[in-house]
Every structure is written in structure tokens, then in C-alpha cells.
Amino acid sequence: MSSDSGIKDGSVKTKGYGRIHYREAGSGSNRPALMLMHTNGGSAYQYETMAPLLAKHFRVIAWDMPGHGDSDRITRHFSMEDHAKALAALMTALKIKAAHVSGASVGGSVTLAFAALFPTRTLTAVPVETPCRNGDEWAAAWHHTEGNFGLPMQTAEQIKERVAVVDGALEQRWNIDRCKAGAWAMMDVMWGIREFNAPAAAKKIKKPTLLVYGRKGPTIALSDRLIAANSKIKRTIMENSGHFPMLDEPSAFASLYINFCK
């Protein structure tokens, strides 16, 4: 993965959610904040290539969600609403009143929950590759889910099933992040997504919202459910991406953010 040129580490103590670690680019300006959330088992490093491109337009803050990366461990079950409240606590600690909010996979679910719970703190919402299964569909897929997140370490071949280009650096970062989170935290995230009513959250959103899907990703087939819940939500498809547009097409993905958020 790319170097951290222009990106700095930070961490703050939040009220109720412990220490949250983040990576920041574009600070020290009056640019609007853009909060970025990684996928399950990932970390802020997923946005390492995109952040410098976005920093010309935003104060970019990519977090380590609670229980992941270098943020504090979680000791109870966290719902998507809990993660949304943790994001609000991070913003408060950083003295950010409102921000553009986006995340991929679980980060997309948290984006929906945040925009529904905190409309005055949301400038725009960009949920990416957001799951939208119903209860029966989750139950049918649960064995596969446990196989994916119940075992932290993955081979390069397993990663290549989900990411277009995998080199040694990405493989190492991928497994460092998954091992930091651990099987329990990753499975807790999946339970949180399973219990989350994404269409109900989408229905409540009032701010400009853009759903982003990778043509090769696993969630696009059910994206109509979110559009049906809120006809004002827009959708776009990245033709050369799967579940990780920030890794598959970082430059095109950054341009998408810039154009929509403006």
C-alpha cells in the first residue's frame, strides 16, 4: 500500500467510547471535514492512497472503528447505532460540528445509521458497498460469514477473491489489521450488520446521499431495497471495483467524492 506522505496519526479520548485512533490529511485549513470508515477487519490504512487526493478539498479523517486498529477494544456488543454514536463522539472530540460521512461495507451501514441519527451533523452521506440482506438471507449465509471473519489470517489467494491487485505490502497490512481486531470483534460487527435495518435508516435520511457499489462486489444485487426505501437517494456503480473501491480504483473513487460532496 502507499506511503503515508502528508498523513498523520492521531488519537483522542471520547466520551463513552474510549480512545479512538485516526489518520488525518488536509488538516490546518477551513476545508469541510470528510469522515471515512473502513470495512470489517480493516483500519484507517485502507484510505492511505485516497487520502492525499481528497486532502486538497477536505479535512480527511479516517478512523479505526471501536475494536479495530489502534482504537480501544470493545467489551460488549456494538450495534450500528452504537458505532454511529462513537463517530459522533469522535467528531465532538475533534471539534467538528458537521461533516461529509462515508464508509464501506460495515462503514456504509454506520454511514446510514449516522445520517439517520444525526441529520444536523451530516453534510452529505456516501454509503459504499452497503449490505442489505434480510434475516433469512443472513441466516443462510452465516456459515460463509463465520469462515470469512472467524479466522483472522488470510492467504494472498483469499484476498485476491475480494481485491483486484494484491501485493506483499497489502497482504501484510490486511492481516495485521484483521489480527488486531480479532475474530470476536469481527464477528460482533457482522452481528451488528445482521441486526441493522438498513432500509429503515435510509428512509429517515434527509441530506444528499449517494450509494456507491462496485460492479464486481457482493452487495449490488440488493441495492434496490435502499432506493425503494428513499427515492431521493442516488446510486452510482464503479465498473472496475468489487467490495473495496478505495483499493481497486482510488483515483476514480476520490473524484467521485469530490464531485458529489461539492
Structure, explained:
- Helix 2 (80-93) crosses helix 3 (106-117), helix 3 (106-117) packs parallel to helix 7 and helix 4 (135-149) packs antiparallel against helix 6 (168-195).
- This protein is of the alpha/beta class.
- The protein has one domain: Alpha/Beta hydrolase fold, catalytic domain (Rossmann fold), CATH 3.40.50.1820.
- It is built from ten helices and eight strands.
- 41% of the residues lie in helices and 18% in strands.
- The chain has a six-stranded mixed sheet with strand order 1-2-4-3-5-6.
Largest sheet: 6 strands, mixed
| CA radius of gyration | 17 Å
What share of residues are in beta strands? 15-25%
Total discrete domains: 1
Order of helices and strands: EEEHEHEHEHHHHEHEHH
| Largest sheet: spatial strand order | 1-2-4-3-5-6
CATH architectural category: 3-Layer(aba) Sandwich
Question: What's the number of extended β-strand segments?
Answer: 8
Helix/strand class: alpha/beta
Unreliable sequence segments: none
Estimate the mean pLDDT confidence: 96
Layout of SSEs?
Elements: E1 8-14, E2 18-25, E3 33-37, H1 50-54, E4 59-63, H2 80-93, E5 99-104, H3 106-117, E6 122-128, H4 135-149, H5 156-160, H6 168-195, H7 198-204, E7 210-214, H8 224-229, E8 234-238, H9 245-248, H10 250-261
Parallel strand pairs: 3-4, 3-5, 5-6, 7-8
Antiparallel strand pairs: 1-2, 2-4
